[in-house]
Amino acid sequence: MLHFDSDYMEGAHPAILERLMETNFDQTPGYGTDAYCERARALVRKACDCPEAEVFFLVGGTQTNATIVDALLGRTQGIIAADTGHIASHEAGAIEAGGHKVLCLPHTLGKIDAAAVRAWCETFFGDENHEHMVAPGAVYISHPTEYGTIYSLAELEALSDTAHAFGLPLFLDGARLGYGLTAEGADATLEDIARLSDVFYLGGTKVGALFGEAVVFTKPELAKGFFTLMKQHGALLAKGRMLGIQFETLLAENRYLEISQHAIDLAMKLKQAFVDAGYELYIDSPTNQQFVVLDEATKQRIGAHASFGFWETLEDGRTVVRFATSWATREESVDELIGLL
Amino acid sequence: MLHFDSDYMEGAHPAILERLMETNFDQTPGYGTDAYCERARALVRKACDCPEAEVFFLVGGTQTNATIVDALLGRTQGIIAADTGHIASHEAGAIEAGGHKVLCLPHTLGKIDAAAVRAWCETFFGDENHEHMVAPGAVYISHPTEYGTIYSLAELEALSDTAHAFGLPLFLDGARLGYGLTAEGADATLEDIARLSDVFYLGGTKVGALFGEAVVFTKPELAKGFFTLMKQHGALLAKGRMLGIQFETLLAENRYLEISQHAIDLAMKLKQAFVDAGYELYIDSPTNQQFVVLDEATKQRIGAHASFGFWETLEDGRTVVRFATSWATREESVDELIGLL
Amino acid sequence: MLHFDSDYMEGAHPAILERLMETNFDQTPGYGTDAYCERARALVRKACDCPEAEVFFLVGGTQTNATIVDALLGRTQGIIAADTGHIASHEAGAIEAGGHKVLCLPHTLGKIDAAAVRAWCETFFGDENHEHMVAPGAVYISHPTEYGTIYSLAELEALSDTAHAFGLPLFLDGARLGYGLTAEGADATLEDIARLSDVFYLGGTKVGALFGEAVVFTKPELAKGFFTLMKQHGALLAKGRMLGIQFETLLAENRYLEISQHAIDLAMKLKQAFVDAGYELYIDSPTNQQFVVLDEATKQRIGAHASFGFWETLEDGRTVVRFATSWATREESVDELIGLL
Amino acid sequence: MLHFDSDYMEGAHPAILERLMETNFDQTPGYGTDAYCERARALVRKACDCPEAEVFFLVGGTQTNATIVDALLGRTQGIIAADTGHIASHEAGAIEAGGHKVLCLPHTLGKIDAAAVRAWCETFFGDENHEHMVAPGAVYISHPTEYGTIYSLAELEALSDTAHAFGLPLFLDGARLGYGLTAEGADATLEDIARLSDVFYLGGTKVGALFGEAVVFTKPELAKGFFTLMKQHGALLAKGRMLGIQFETLLAENRYLEISQHAIDLAMKLKQAFVDAGYELYIDSPTNQQFVVLDEATKQRIGAHASFGFWETLEDGRTVVRFATSWATREESVDELIGLL
Fold it and tell me: In the prediction, which pLDDT does A164 show?
C-alpha cells in the first residue's frame, strides 16, 4: 500500500536521529535554556537575517497558534483570519478556550487579501457601536495555506502594510513553511517573511522533525512574557534540548530547504502526471499538497493501492482528495502511484 | 562537573532511541491512532490490571494536568490540592487559565491526608453560603510528591474513600510514578493506584522517555470527549506514534520499574552517605529526590564540583538543596559525589 | 426633538416604580430568595404553562446570554447561531471570554432555518476529522431577531425538532420577546415557546422594566448549578427582589403583553405611514423595530427633528436607519414623526 | 421580627426613588453615555479631588471585582489578596473564570499589611524558577474588610508604597466604602484613598442605592478599553442612567457620608450595649458590622426575635454571629435589639 495521506506519516530526518543518539547522555538544564537551543536560535536568526529576533521552540502547531494568539491579543480583541484558517476551524476551539474570537473573512483558495482586511477594518472602526464588539487585534495567515496555496511577495507586502496601517501585528503560521519557500513560483524568501511579519514560525513537525515549531518574534517587544505563557499553555518542553537539537540539525547545511525542495519536486511530478492523464485538478497547487477531483470508480481503483486524504464531496457526486508528499517521500512511491493513474 | 540538578537532564533510555531508529520510515496515521499506541495502551491496561481503562498519551506534565483537570471539573468547581502541589504553584496558572480554582490545603511534607479533605468538605457543604463559592470537584495528589515523599497504601485507600464519599474523583499526578512504585518502603502497587484513583498518569519524561505521560482513566466514563479536549489544549501530538513507541518500550520486560529501581538504589546509597558523613537530612525521602541541609562553606565546596537544585533558605542561613538521581544516573557519579562529602 | 433610537430610552412602567416605592423598606434576604421573586417565578411558570420550569432573574441581556451558554455547553462545544445573532457580533466577545465558539450560519433577515441547521450538523458529524473541531452543543435563536423579524410557529417547531434530533438544546433569546409575541401575524404563543425551547428568556429591559431578564429553563435538569454560575458571571443581583418586584408587576393583569401590543400598534401605524409616503422599507418588519431606506436629503431633513438608529450604508449611498417604538412611546410622538415624512 | 442579617435588606434611599420617578420618562441614550452619568462622574471626581479620574458605573460587587481584575492583570499574572478577601472566597470563582489566580496571603482580621506583601514579592522575584509561576500583577484590599475592620491612613500609605515599589497597582474594594470612611477612628479620607490607590470603588448597593458601584481609576491609563471589557463581562447596564441618577443623588449634599454615619452611630450604640451587657466581641469592629460570640442559649433567645448572620462555630461550641446595621436601620430597631440582650 502506498501512503499519501499527509506530510507527517514518518519519523524524522535520519540526521536528527543520529544527533539524538550522539547527545543522548549529555546532561543539560531544561526548558530550552541549553546550548543546543542557543545555537539553534542563532541559526534561525541568521537564516531570517533578523539578528534581534526572539526565538522559542514549541512542540506542535495548535499549541503554538494558541500561545502566540494569547501573546498578541488584548482581552477584547480578536484575530482576523480566513474562514478556512487552521485556527478558525481545526483546533477544537483552542483560540476560544483562551478567551479570544476568530474574526473570519471569506477565503479565496485558503487566502485572504489586503483589500478585504482593509475593508473589514474600515467598516469596523466606522461603526459607531464598535466599542460593543470584538476589535481586531492581529491578522493571521498560513503560508502555505490549508489549500496548498501560497502568497506572493506582493501579496505579503500588501497584507503587512495593511495590518500595520491599523496597528495590527501580522502572524504567519508556517507549519509547512519549508514547502512554501520552495514552492513552484514562490518569490517570498524567509528573509522577506521575517521582514514583513511580526511573528511567524518555521514548522518542523511536517518538515523533517519528529515534532517542533520554531517561533520567531521579529519584533522582540511582542515576546515579552512569552516563556511564562508557554508554561501556562503546557507548551514548554522539559527536555527542551530535543527541540534545539532538531532545529540545529534542520538548519545546518541548508537542510530545511533541501528536504522541502525534494517534496516539491515530487509533488510537481505527480501533478504533471495527473494533468497528463486527464485528471481534473481542484486547485493548481504549487506546494506539496495536491488536490484532485476523482469520480467514484477512479477513487476506488486508486484507493485499492494508495491511501490519500478526503477533502470534500462535490455536488456532482465526485470527490476532492488530497495527495501529500513530504521530505520523506520516496520517488519510487510517486512513480508507482503515477503508474496507477 | 557532576550534575544532580533534576531527573530530566538526559535524553531517553537507549532502547527507545533504537526503536525510533528502527521504525523511522514506517508510515502511520497521526494523533495516537496508530498500532504502536494501540499496543502501548494494551500494555498499560495490563500493567494496571484494569482492562476497561481508557489510555491517552500526552507530551508533558503541565499540559497533562491542565487537560485532566478540565475534563474532571464543572465550571464552578475547583480541585483540592496540597498548597505545594505542582498545579497549585509551578504551572504558571495553567489551571486558572482554564477557568478553575485550586482549593489549597496545607501540606505535610508535600502530602494531604484524608481527614483534612473530609474536614474541608464538611465545612464547605455545611456553610449556608456555599452556593456562592467554588465547590470541590476533584482531589489532586502527586505521588511521589514534590518533596520526594510517597503515600502509603493505607493513606491512598483513605483518600480514595473520602474523595468518593463526597462524589469527587481522585486524580493522582504520577510524573515520577516509577520512583514512587519502587521507593524504599513503598507498599502501593500500580494495580493499587489504578484501583484507588479515577485518573492518574505514568510519567515518562522523568522516567526514561524523551517526553511523554500515559494518562489512565480507570473510570472510562470520565474520559468522554478527552481526545478533543487534548486537541483544544494543544496536547495532541501529530506524530502520536512517538509516544506509543516510547511507552511500548518502557513497559516491555518490566523496564519501567527496573530503571526506576536503579534511581532509587543510587538515591538510597547517597542518602546513607549523607547520614554517615553527618549531614542533616531536610526530609527523610524514600525516593530519587534527596533534600539535605548545607551550611554555606559546604555548599560552596560541593558546588565547585557538583550541581544540585536550590530548595530554600532556612532562618539560620543554611540552605536546603536537592540532589536528584534518575534512570540515567551512573553509579560512578554517585560515588564521586560521595567522595566530596 | 423626537427620539426613536432604541426601545430602552425611558425608565420603567409606572406601576413598577410604584411597587418599588411601596416595598422600599421591606426587609428581605438577598439573591432572589425572597417572596417577591418566588411569586414572580410562579407567575412566569403559569404564563408559560410549564409548572416544572426553573426560573431565574438576571439583570441584562449580554450577561444572560453568556451565563446560559456557559450552562449549556461542554468545553469543546460551540453554539450554532445566525451570523447576525447578538451573541455572534454585539457582545464584545462575552461568549468567547467564557471559552466557547459561536458556530455561525448565514442569516436570512436575522433568522436561521431548520434545514440549514440540519445540513450543517450532518456535514459536521459526517466529517471524519470532526473530533478535531468544535462540536455543536446548542442552537441559539433570537425572537424577534436583531432585524425585527419573527419566527412562525412552524419554523420554531422545525428548529426545535431538528435541534433535538442532534441532541442539542434550543435556546431562544427573548430580549424583545413581548414584541415578538404581539407582532403582526405572530402565531407562536408564550406556551409554544416554552414547549419548543429548552431555555429562553422574557426580556424586561426593553419591555417595561428598569432592567431584568427572566430566564426559563423548561427542562429543569439543564438548570443544575445555574445559581452558582450566575454568581460567577457577576449576574446575581444582591437585592434580587428588585427583579422579583418588576416581573411580578409586568406579569400581573396581562401587562407584559398589553404594553408590548402598544409598541406594535404604533410601529404598524408608522410603517404604514412610511409606505403611504413612498418610502422604501428595508425589511417588512412585523415588530417594534422598523427599518427604512433614506436618501441623504431625507435623512438630514428628518434627522433635524427626530433621532433614530444608523443601520448600514447601501452601495448606492443611501442609508438604512431604524426607528424603534416601545411600551413607552407616546402616540403623539409617532404622529409628529409621521408629519415629518 | 428584627433583621440585622446584612446591609442590603432594604431598597434605596427615598431621594433616589424620587429622582427615578421624576426622570422616568426622560429619553436618554444607553450604556452610561447620558447626562445623569456625566454629572455623577463629575461629582465623583470632585469628591475624590481627582479631576483626571476615569469613572464607570457597574451594577454589583462581584462583576465589578472581576472586570477590574481583568483590566489590571496580564495573562500570567495574579492578584495578591488576603485569604479572606471577597475575590478569594465568595465569588464562585469569578476571578479564575477570567483566567486569573488569586495569590493569597494570610489575613489579620481581614487585613494584609505592607510588610507581608513586600516579603512575598521579594521571595517570589528571588526564586530562580519564578518564570514558571504566576507573577503578582496587582494588590487587592477591601476597606472595610469582610471582618468589618479598616485600614489606617498609615497602613494604606505603606501598602500603596510597597505595591508601587514592585510596579503593582493597588485596587481597593469599596463595596462598603461609606462605612469605612465614617468608621470610628477612621483617619483615611476619600481623597486619601483616591491618592493612594490606582483603582477603587464607591459601593452603592450596600450604602443607599438599589444597586450600583462607582469605579474610579485614579490613573486613567489603567482604564483603557474598560468600557468594552464591561460589555464583555455583562456589566454594562443598558439603561445606564439608572446608575448615574443614583450616584448623583448619593453624592449630592454629602448624602453618602451622612447615611453612612447613621449606620456607624447605630453600630457603635449596639456595640457598647453588647459590651455593657457582658457579651464577648469577636472583633472590636469600628464599622457597621459587629461580630459577637454567643452561647447556644443566648443565640436561641435573641434569635427568636431578631435575625443575624452566622459567621463561624468556635471550638468551644459557641457561635460567632454578625449584626449589620445600614443607612436604612431605624434607631428603634436597635433599641429593641438592645432590650433583648
Answer: 98
For helices A255-276 and A241-251, angle between their N-to-C axes, nearest 10 degrees: 70
Task: Flag whether residue C225 sits within 8 Å of chain B, measured between CB atoms.
Answer: yes
CATH number, domain containing residue A316: 3.90.1150.10
A101/C129 Cβ within 8 A: no
Helix axes of A14-22 and B14-22: crossing angle, nearest 10 degrees? 170
Domain of D69, in residue numbers: 14-254
Q: Reduced to 3 states, what is the DSSP secondary structure of residue A197?
A: coil
Q: Kindly state whether residues D101 and D170 are assigned to the same domain.
A: yes
Percent of chain C with pLDDT over 70: 100
> pTM value?
0.97
Q: All 3 cell numbers of residue A145?
A: 495555506
Query: What is the Cβ-side half-sphere exposure of residue D273, based on CA atoms within 13 angstroms?
Result: 16
What pLDDT shows up at residue B128?
86
Residue C154 shares a structural domain with residue C249: yes
Task: Find cell 450604602 and name the residue.
Answer: D207
- C74 & C129 share domain: yes
Over residues C135-148, the pLDDT tens digits come to 999 999 999 999 99
Quick one: three-class SS letters along chain C?
CEECCCCCCCCCCHHHHHHHHHCCCCCCCCCCCCHHHHHHHHHHHHHHCCCCCEEEEECCHHHHHHHHHHHHCCCCEEEEEECCCHHHHCCCCHHHHCCCEEEEECCECCECCHHHHHHHHHHHHHCCCHHHCCEEEEEEEECCCCCCCCCCHHHHHHHHHHHHHCCCCEEEECCCHHHHHCCCCCCCCHHHHHHHCCEEEEECCCCCCCCCEEEEECCHHHHCCHHHHHHHCCCCCCCCHHHHHHHHHHHHHHHHHHHHHHHHHHHHHHHHHHHHCCCEECCCCCCCEEEEEECHHHHHHHHCCEECEEEEECCCCCEEEEEECCCCCCHHHHHHHHHHC
In this predicted model, what pLDDT tens digit does every residue of B198-210 receive, in sequence order? 999 999 999 999 9
A21 to chain C, any CB pair closer than 8 A? The answer is no
Interface predicted TM-score (ipTM) = 0.97
Mutate to test the interface with A, among C69, C96, C127, C308 (most CBs of A within 10 A): C96
Q: Judge whether C293 and C319 are in contact, CB under 8 Å.
A: yes
How far apart CA D120 and CA C138 sit, in angstroms, is 45
My answer on whether A249 and A260 are in the same domain is no
Q: What percent of chain A has pLDDT over 90?
A: 98
Q: Omega of the bond prior to A136 within 30 degrees of 0, cis?
A: no
Query: What's the gap in Å between the CA of A96 and the closest CA on chain C?
Result: 5
- pLDDT band of residue C128 (cuts 50, 70, 90) is confident
* Distance from C-alpha of D65 to C-alpha of D72, rounded to nearest angstrom: 11
Judged by DSSP in three states, B225 sits in coil
Count how many pairs of residues, chain A against chain B, have C-beta atoms within 8 Å.
148
Domain count, chain A: 2
Contacts of D300 (CB under 8 A, 6+ apart): none
- Whether D23 contacts chain B with CB within 8 A: no
User: Are C6 and D328 a contacting pair at CB < 8 A?
Assistant: no
Residue that terminates a domain, selected from D254, D272, D306: D254
Contact C75 B70 (CB under 8 A): yes
Chains that touch B (3 or more CB pairs under 8 A): A, C, D
Residue A128 has pLDDT above 90, yes or no: no
A206 Cβ contact partners less than 8 Å away, ≥ 6 residues apart: A7, A8, A175, A176, A178, A179, A326, B238
Q: Shortest CA distance to A215 belongs to which of A336, A76, A37?
A: A37
Reported as type and span, the H/E element at residue A292 is strand A289-294
- Residue D273 and residue D197 in one domain: no
At which of C254, C280, C296 does a domain end? Answer: C254
The minimal CB distance from A232 to the residues B94, B229, B236 is found for: B94
